[in-house]
Write a structure and sequence with these properties.
- It contains 14 helices and 19 strands.
- It is of the alpha/beta class.
- The protein has three domains: about 120 residues, Methylthiotransferase, N-terminal domain (Rossmann fold); about 230 residues, tm_1862 like domain (pyruvate-formate lyase- activating enzyme, Alpha-Beta Horseshoe), CATH 3.80.30; about 55 residues, Beta Barrel (OB fold (Dihydrolipoamide Acetyltransferase, E2P)), CATH 2.40.50.
- A hairpin with a 3-residue loop joins strand 18 and strand 19.
- Helix 7 runs parallel beside helix 8 and helix 12 runs parallel beside helix 13.
- The radius of gyration is 23 Å and the shape is globular.
- Bound molecules: 5'-deoxyadenosine (5AD) and iron/sulfur cluster (SF4).
């Protein structure tokens, strides 16, 4: 019998890609493959890609270039590209890169086993980049065999919004949702294996269930009933679709963490209009006020794009105003990157690279200052922390997350704390994390030694 093939998956991009990579890993493991930590040593190398910005695509192309000598050294090695770049330029990629064996788009990930088999057994180079355009629902039950304390679950795919800068609707297709029954089944199975927190994933998650009678609010309510589950989160929300049913849950449902990612992209109404975001800056701020009324201690995070076509100094200052008014606990800040095929691609990319970079630096400085100030305010207080694992870099610290999704290093926790929610007194804070001591350390040590 042949030795089992070894597999390495390199993942770029968003959490949905991390989830998809996990799924492909499970499928290939079930076919007998073993996981290889070192990319250069693996028999099968799979790159799961992102095309949200030009830079993300460049990284993939450059990595593919570096893999050429590996393939030359061992022509039997299988190299595959998955994900959004595969969807966008898969066929061209296979033509342009002779050492690439197969390409699979986001909707083809469940076929990855057959694709690898085709290459290994029959030497077939192929592309599976068909978007699943059939109806509004799909099924993709969990495969995970060794779940973590905090897990991500994709509950829907695609996006119907067509913001003018965004490639997602082109590479991930129209919105389709899994059923509440299937998702809650996943959650129950994860919890039975030790998971304590789930984060539901969708590109435009507030419209989960579109085309059916099911809604995100119902999904959250049903998930809330799962015994043993401690925390629920979801990403990514769209301000227009963040309705009162969802907002009011933040004050009412104990397991729903008081943290929400609500991208605003720009503070200028003129820019928002050209982005086709379907809300004004004032409407966005109204949603924020409603969220804070429902849940005063809610942590808010956002995405921002600077340098969108036609963005003036004045437009940009309005973005700065929203950042300083809302005081986000985290912000993902990007310079605009034209994506072929999108509507904004036809507009002139007229903000110079220097101005984009300067604006980005200003938003970064402001948000960092705010985050650091806010984090420092937590010093002396108690955070409820779900301990996820030992901190690999620091060796002896344990690592977890607060309700606000802040990384917390716990200096005196032991292995018995992993998978538990513990009270941590914060003693240090900086722009990226909190540090502190487990208040009931003695008690758990005793429990652990029983
Ligand atoms: N250029 C820059 N940023 C973009 N994003 C999406 N498309 C682009 C683009 N073409 C950002 C948005 C989105 C996040 C996931 O990526 O802010 O919310
Ligand atoms: Fe892209 Fe999000 Fe807009 Fe959908 S809602 S088009 S994923 S930015």
């Amino acid at each position: 019998m042949d030795a089992p093939l070894s597999l390495h998956i390199k993942t770029f991009g968003c959490q949905m890609n991390v989830y998809d990579s996990g799924r492909m890993g499970e499928i290939l493991k079930a076919q007998g493959m073993t996981y290889e930590e070192r990319l250069g040593e693996a028999d099968v190398i799979l790159i799961n890609t992102c095309s949200i910005r030009d830079k993300a695509e460049h990284k993939v192309l450059s990595l593919l270039g570096q893999l050429k000598p590996l393939k030359e050294k061992n022509p039997k090695r299988v190299i595959g590209v998955a994900g959004c770049v595969g969807q966008r330029i898969g066929r061209q990629l296979l033509q342009r890169v002779p050492h690439l064996d197969f390409v699979v788009g986001p909707d083809g990930i469940d076929h990855v086993g057959e694709l690898v088999d085709g290459v290994v057994k029959r030497g077939e180079r192929c592309v599976d980049a068909k978007l699943d355009t059939d109806g509004r629902s799909y099924s993709q039950p969990l495969l995970s065999t060794a779940p973590k304390v905090a897990e991500y679950i994709t509950v829907m795919k695609g996006c119907d919004h067509f913001c003018t800068y965004c490639i997602v609707p082109f590479v991930r297709g129209r919105e389709k949702s899994r059923s509440i029954q299937e998702i809650v089944g996943d959650v129950e199975r994860l919890v039975a294996q030790g998971t304590k927190e789930v984060t539901f994933l969708g590109q435009n998650i507030n419209t989960y269930g579109k085309g059916s009678a099911e809604t995100l609010a119902q999904l959250i309510e049903r998930t809330h009933e799962v015994r043993g589950l401690e925390r629920i989160r979801y990403v990514t929300s769209h301000p227009r679709d963040m309705g009162m049913d969802l907002i009011s849950q933040f004050g009412n449902l104990e397991k729903l963490c008081p943290a929400l990612h609500l991208p605003f992209q720009s503070g200028s109404d003129a820019v928002l209009k050209r982005m086709s975001r379907l809300y004004t800056s004032a409407e966005y701020l109204k949603k924020i006020a409603a969220l804070r009324e429902a849940c005063p201690d809610i942590a808010l995070s956002a995405d921002v794009i600077v340098g969108f076509p036609g963005e003036t100094d004045e437009d940009f200052e309005q973005t700065m105003t929203v950042l300083s008014e809302v005081r986000f606990s985290l912000a993902f800040l990007f310079t605009y990157s034209p994506r072929p095929g999108t509507k904004a691609y036809e507009l002139s990319d007229d903000v110079s690279r220097e101005v984009k970079e300067e604006r980005l630096a200003r938003t970064m400085k402001l948000t960092m200052e705010i985050i650091e100030e806010e984090n420092r305010k937590r010093i002396g207080g108690i955070e409820s922390v779900l301990v996820e694992s030992i901190d690999k870099k620091k060796g002896r610290y344990f690592f977890g997350r607060s309700l606000h999704n802040k990384i917390v290093h716990v200096l005196n926790a032991g292995p018995a704390c992993v998978g538990k929610v513990i009270d941590v007194e914060v003693t240090e804070a900086n722009g990226s994390n909190l540090k502190g001591y487990y208040v009931d350390a003695e008690r758990i040590d005793r429990v652990a030694s029983l």
